[in-house]
Amino acid sequence: MNKVTMYCTAVCPYCVAAERLLKSRGVEHIDKIRVDEQPRLREEMMSRTGRRTVPQIYIGETHVGGFDDISALDKADGLMKLLNGG
């Protein structure tokens, strides 16, 4: 299974929802980058993704986007393929 990285904050309900969705699809570990604890990491996130909001999710080297994006990918049957490297 591809590595999952998520830029997030402690109190973001969309981050919680994204984590719940990923775990329901078999993801055991999410590398969480807490942008609320270290402002320079938010700058890194914005530079890397072009977006300001959390969550911002990477599966492997692919930027998936936020919760709405990952949810849409799941509904289109693309999430498991991406998680499994396909």
Structural overview:
By secondary structure, the protein is α+β, with helices and mostly antiparallel strands. It has a single domain, classed as Glutaredoxin, CATH 3.40.30.10. It is 43% helix and 21% strand. It has helices at residues 13-24, 39-49, 67-75, 79-83, and strands at 4-8, 30-34, 56-59, 62-65. It has a 4-stranded mixed sheet, sandwiched between helices. β3 and β4 form a beta hairpin. The protein is globular. The relative contact order is 0.24.
Key words describing this protein structure:
86 residues, alpha+beta, Glutaredoxin, four-stranded mixed sheet, 4 helices, 4 strands, 43% helix, 21% strand, globular
Number of domains: 1
Strand content: 15-25%
Q: Terminal Cα separation, in Å?
A: 10 Å
Q: Supply the CATH architecture.
A: 3-Layer(aba) Sandwich
Roughly how many Å is the radius of gyration? 12 Å
The strand order across the widest sheet is 2-1-3-4
Q: Strand pairing plus helix content: what structural class?
A: alpha+beta
Say how many strands there are.
Answer: 4
Fill in the CATH topology: Glutaredoxin
Q: What sort of overall outline do the alpha carbons produce when their principal axes are compared?
A: globular
| CATH homologous superfamily assignment | Glutaredoxin
Order of helices and strands: EHEHEEHH
> What do the pLDDT scores average to?
95
CATH class: Alpha Beta
User: DSSP helix count?
Assistant: 4
Q: Low-confidence spans: pLDDT under 50, at least 5 residues?
A: none
